[in-house]
Amino acid sequence: MTGVPPRLFKQPRQPANIGISLASIAKRPLFFALLFMGAGIVQAGQIYRWVDAEGTSHFGDRPQRDVATQEVQLRPLNSIEGPKASRQKQQQKLLESYDRGREEKAKTEAAGLRQQALKVRQCAKMRQTLEYYERSSILFEKQADGSKRFLDNKDRDAEVAHLKAAIASECR
């Protein structure tokens, strides 16, 4: 035998390295999602308020039997408050105001375009009528009873002058 003593005890085994450490778990988004979900569950309980005989207010998670208690209504923790909320409200109002202004402008422009198209049609009709009056030698007007009244040259010239004046003032 050599000078090496025999081993009486076995060496302890090293745990198997499975590649998961606390640091690697903390880096995963699922870990944080579960952590925050658990925090919300803890806060889900009711809070009660009561005033003792000396006038001191107390709060607890269970209603008191010998004293009148009130359930406290808390706002949600994820509500937006403070200057950020007021700024967001101002921005929302400003955006709504801009939207209303754009809608009103679009309506005004559309009405203007309709009015312009109507004027173009009216001018075309007046020019067509003027051309017809100048080419025709005999003109007549229909009366309410269905009869025809023939226009003499003087009345015809007056109608032509009236149409020319209307075209000059309205159709540019």
Largest sheet: 3 strands, antiparallel
Classify the beta-strand content into a percent band: 5-15%
Q: Please tally the β strands and state the result.
A: 5
* Total number of distinct structural domains: 2
Q: What is the element string, with H for helices and E for strands?
A: HHEEEHEEH
Q: Largest beta sheet: what is the strand line-up?
A: 2-1-3
Stretches with pLDDT under 50, minimum 5 residues: none
> Averaged pLDDT, please?
79
Helix content: 40-55%
Shape assignment: elongated
Number of helical regions? 4
**End-to-end span in angstroms?**
127 Å
Cα gyration radius (Å): 47 Å
Structural class: alpha+beta
Please describe the topology of this protein.
Blueprint lengths: L21 H5 L2 H14 L4 E5 L5 E4 L8 E4 L10 H53 L3 E4 L5 E4 L1 H18 L2
Antiparallel strand pairs: 1-2, 1-3, 4-5
Helix pairs in contact: 3-4
In short:
The chain is an alpha+beta fold and 172 residues long.
Structure characterization notes:
The protein is an alpha+beta fold. The chain is built from 4 helices and 5 strands. Strands 2-1-3 form a 3-stranded antiparallel β-sheet, with no helix packed on it. A two-stranded antiparallel sheet has the order 4-5. A hairpin with a 5-residue loop joins β4 and β5. The longest helix has 53 residues. It is elongated and about 135 Å long. The mean pLDDT is 79.
